[in-house]
Amino acid sequence: MTQSINAVTLAQFSQLSIQGEDAEKFLQGQLTCNVTKLGLSYQAAAIGNLKGRIEFGIWIKKQAEKHYDVVISTDCAEALQGHLKKFGAFSKFDTSTPMPIYPCVIDNVPTFSHQDDYNTSENIQAWMQSSIATGNYWIVAATQGEFQPQELRLHQRGGMDYDKGCYLGQEVIARIYFKSAPKAFLHYVKGTSVKGSGTTPAAGEKLDKVQVVNAITTSEGFEALVVARPEQLAESGLTILDLPLALQADVARPK
């Protein structure tokens, strides 16, 4: 599908390395995923706020013993540094200066690489298209604090562990999981225009009662990941597309 790179901002990412004696323990008390189970592949995860919403959407891998690499949208990297400094003031670890890392698609999987060859608009846009089609959302500054992890199906991607113990926002997140379920949640859609304007919606923009997480321009209009109630989506005029099978399950806790 032919796409335009002019209507949307190309995604940009940075990597920070967290190393030190207390790195694992500290991250375990911050992230939604179980840090002790991380390996060399990037795992989508999040750092929540006290309201149980995603403050920082990240990908993380264990590069070596007591060494973790974290990828985050570049416009959130400085805020993440401040967060780590604040909450890790009494923990023994060092955080590197954020360095550029490039989104790319390898073996049909959206991932990241330090190779300069991938630093092209074509590669970045291919990553955006693949990510939207597979539910691999990315949080930017405009959407910090907007979404609850379960709304974005993070638990269906291995990015949440309900048995690992406390972390920021855990009480609210666990309450939703065990006692209720999100009424609005992630969908993959396509549309032809935004309120007749012919433009692609920005991250965080609301189309009536449908909130955009990420969007990309296509030859026919746009494709997007959105959070909405099914009945609201049915009234929106957007066409629902299929997410991968693992993300088509009910967002509620299995009974």
TrEMBL record:
InterPro entries: YgfZ/GCV_T_CS (IPR017703), YgfZ/GcvT (IPR045179). GO terms for biological process: iron-sulfur cluster assembly. This is Aminomethyltransferase folate-binding domain-containing protein. The lineage of its organism: Bacteria, Pseudomonadati, Pseudomonadota, Gammaproteobacteria, Moraxellales.
